[in-house]
Write a structure and sequence with these properties.
The chain is of the alpha+beta class. Helix content is about 25%, strand content about 30%. The chain is globular, with a radius of gyration of 17 Å. It starts with 11 loop residues before the first helix and ends with a helix.
Amino acid sequence: MFAQLPKRRFTVQQYHQMSAANILTADDHVELIDGEIIEMAPIGSRHAACVDRLNRLLNRFLGEQALIRVQNPLSLGERSEPQPDIAIVQLRADYYEMGHPQSQDMLLLVEVADTTLEFDRSIKTSLYASVGIPEVWLVDLNGLAIEIYREPSADSYKSTQRFQRNQTISAQAFPDINFDLVQILG
């Protein structure tokens, strides 16, 4: 029989101290999720291409209305510092130099998944809902679809919709701008 042993959970401050002490280095592709240091999956070419397409589209349509951050950290409480593929945040003159964006700065988060779909769908969306991020798009590269999560509650989203490759979507924060999924999925 396997006994569940207690896990050592870390704070964001401890996570940063590990980096400063070179316990974690730039070669360690990790993020802090609910106090646990999670190794991030390697970024394959399909994943990278999708992130690049999204970045280009979002900058073209939203460039003057919001800041598009690609694979940069977010500060989501004392025990989480995820690095979503894309975070669309409110513009700030300092470009968040004084600290990573927090949940109140978020307009839309996008996670692109091929090998991490279940982790992103369960763990990450639950984290994002718990801190009140208004909308999350989960790009399912294998299923050629995008899941949209809206109306955050304590640990999940009340509204979830799945859109297929031949459909268009828009973000709650920018309802007049439509995105063709073919442009995103390739």
